[in-house]
Amino acid sequence: MHHLFTRANAARLTVFLTATTLVFLALQLGEAPSRPGSDAAAPLLVLTEGAPAAGARVPPHPLLLPGAFLERHTARRPGHRDARRPAHPKGARHSRSTSHQRRHSAQHSAQHATRTKRSHRHHPRHHPGQAGRRTTDRSGGRPKQVWGGRDISWPQCPPHVGIKELRGLAQPMPEPGVRFVIIGLTNGRAFTPNPCLRKHLRWVRKHHVWASAYAFTTYPTRGQLHRLGKRGPYERRSLHARLRNAGYAAARYNIRTMQRHGFVTPHVWLDVEESSSRPWSRRVDRNRAVVQGWVRAYRDAGYTVGFYSTINIWAEILGRTRFGLPEWRTAGPDTARAALGRCSERSFQGGPAVVAQWWNSRRDFDRMCPGYTHPEKMAKFFHQY
Description:
Layout: H1 2-28, H2 66-74, H3 96-122, E1 146-152, E2 162-163, E3 166-167, E4 178-184, H4 197-207, E5 210-216, H5 222-228, H6 239-261, E6 267-271, H7 284-300, E7 304-309, H8 311-318, E8 327-330, H9 336-341, E9 353-359, E10 364-368, H10 375-378, E11 383-384
Parallel strand pairs: 1-4, 4-5, 5-6, 6-7, 7-8, 8-9
Antiparallel strand pairs: 1-10, 2-3, 5-11, 9-10
Helix pairs in contact: 5-6, 6-7
């Protein structure tokens, strides 16, 4: 212990002499005139890790004893950070992997937001890739309105419901934020109601969207023609009159379904297309008679009527028949741009284009054609719930 004590004293003496020598050398370098208000009268020797730039004035530094000097330049002070290392946000970990993950996540979010904005500029009302995404308004937490609509019917039902030939497909309901919905009244053919109509109307009322109806038109069977052809507004002597009465009865069936469920709409779209379970007649004049009965029944009940079809399908079923009624045109499994392009194409039955449709394997998408997006125009075809 005695030897250790002697060596410790010698070390302290060496440090003291070294500090004294440094102070003496600093004083010998020359004094600089002090400025009024300055706390230092002369520059002191400051030990740094790098030499100061040429012509740079070394900031004044109070004289420190060796122990205090070492403590100042080796100890970490609260809030200290290395000048070579960027400051971390409060509460952030100094982990390189964590910082990298956070930066990668931020960059990914920014890139995704940019791509989303670009895609919505391409399709200003709706982008199919974002069909299932829920967006909320910052102001009130309500879903943002998507400038477009959907049409739903028995495909949105569970697989265990529906007629044997057309069971539900469990397709998704419209995402919150759509502007309008067109609901099917039938299960794919006449005299078969949509088994999920109550559920669909409940969704419409909950989300307060515009709603309209559509019905699938089919050619009557022999039994239906025999039973229903003798009753109706048309005389029953000719085949065409009985076909009109059968069409009239099918439309009245849908009207009673709407009334029973409280389905309010000013307009009904008639879906004219091929049916595998109920094929149309090969005679255009007979098919025309059935459709004429449908149109009259809805008009007698106070509804306006329009048609959903394509140029080729209409020509195959109804030839050159012209009603001059509003049209809901479809582009099939295509894009929004292709669907909106149908709005400017020639009519299939002499009426104006009001709604354009395209679809994929899970959803049917709809847009209002130019000139019909204003609420006053939409009110002619939809009811605001």
